[in-house]
Amino acid sequence: MADTKKTKTLLWTCLIPCLVLLSAAFFIASAFIITECKQDECRPEGSETLPRGIVAKTSDLEMHPLWGPPNKRKSKSPMSLLAMAVGIKQKKNVNEIVKKFPKTDFVIMIFHYDGVVDEWKDVEWSSSAIHISAINQTKWWFAKRFLHPDIVAEYAYIFLWDEDLGVKNFNAGRYLSIIKEEGLQISQPAIDAELSEIHHELTAREKGSRVHRRTINIRGPGRRCYEDSTEPPCTGFVEMMAPVFSRASWRCAWYIIQNDFVHAWGVDFQLGYCAQGNRISNVGVVDSEYLVHYGLPTLGGAENEKSSLAQGQTPNQESSPKKSQMELPESHPSDTRNAVRKQSLAELERFKNRWKKAVREDQCWVDPFQQPVEQKR
User: Fold this and answer.
1) In whole angstroms, what separates CA 114 from the centre of its chain?
2) Which of 122, 233, 238, 247 has the smallest C-beta neighbourhood within 10 Å, fewest atoms?
3) What pLDDT does 189 receive?
4) Alpha-carbon distance 321 to 306, whole Å?
5) What's the pLDDT tens digit per position in 243-253?
6) Is the Cα torsion angle 347, 259, 254, 278 positive or negative in sign?
7) What pTM was estimated for this model as a whole?
8) Strand pairing report for 80-86 and 106-112
9) CB-CB contact of 101 with 82 (8 Å)
């Protein structure tokens, strides 16, 4: 009898830990399954009926052969993207720009605002570039529709440039090295003030400098900028002719571009919100790799004689595309430019009002730049 009791006691002694272990295993497995199911709730819209492993969330602009293995890149570093809105009249200058971006490290995407595509076939890089054509559309119209963050998620940096830039003193490889070392999420090459019209003092090249993040403008024209100024365009600012975005900053900036606006005026003042942290530190102008901005009124414009800036020459920029190609209204070219400027200013006011309204209505949003931030000069 004693042996029977002893056996039962021993059985329970062994059984209880086993039950505890089984219960724990069941609990952990259940938690894992619940976690998995909760993750399913975060799937991209429309993929709920698909097994998770088959969902390809992102894409890129790489071309693939119709047969055989895909082309292998020589570069081990992530590719970056150069996207430009161009017209055929700027062909020579655009060619000079694109040649500055090695095809081993960059994908080239060309937006044709004049509808002319075939006449670019004779440039060396044309067959490997992505060509998109839409009449009379701006760089920002194209970017909003063809540079969705999920499409360009594979690219480390997005260069979204105008066509009227002089690149004699620019090297893309050195530029990438600098912005990586400096931690710049949003940047631009500096502008040569001696050969360009400067709209914002911050973008002017500082000779002898590598990078600068702020400007001081106490007596000059434009907005006053002091040593302790913390707002754009005194700091945390780049202009819209040659911005460069990191992958993360572009994912944010794409949302700021308004789908129904054409010229994106005002967006530059808000890009600091996409700087992935302190805009004073993470937004900057690279002085050692700089550009000339010819300031040509190409889209919807006409000849601009004062644009013969670089070395006293106009880089194949004698005029904007022909009226037949651009479908411009039958009016004097200056009337067209005035209409474009009027539209730009109207959109600027609408953007400001839209921003104010969004801030007012979003009760959960906290402006990260209302509080003092550590400044980096």
Assistant:
1) 23
2) 122
3) 98
4) 18
5) 999 999 999 99
6) positive
7) 0.77
8) parallel
9) yes
Whether the Cβ atoms of residue 228 and residue 305 lie closer than 8 Å to each other: no
To which residue do tokens 């329970």 refer? 12
- pLDDT at residue number 209: 96
Contact predicate 262/343, CB 8 Å: yes
Residue type, 182: E
| Cα–Cα distance, 158 to 81 (Å, whole number) | 5
Contact 170, 82 (CB under 8 A): no
Q: Are 109 and 139 in contact (CB under 8 A)?
A: no
Q: Which residue has the higher pLDDT, 230 or 71?
A: 230
* Angle at 217 (CA atoms; ends 216, 222), nearest 5 degrees: 140
Burial of 285 (0-12, 13-18, 19+ CB in 10 A): buried
Tokens standing for residue 310? 């670089």
CB 163 within 8 A of CB 142: no
Q: CB under 8 Å to 236, separation ≥6 — which residues?
A: 213, 230, 272, 275, 279, 280, 283
Low-confidence winner among 29-38, 113-122, 144-153 (lowest mean pLDDT): 29-38
Return the sign of the alpha-carbon dihedral for residues 141, 145, 149, 151.
Answer: negative
What does the chain come to in residues? Answer: 377
CB–CB of 150/47 below 8 Å?
Answer: no
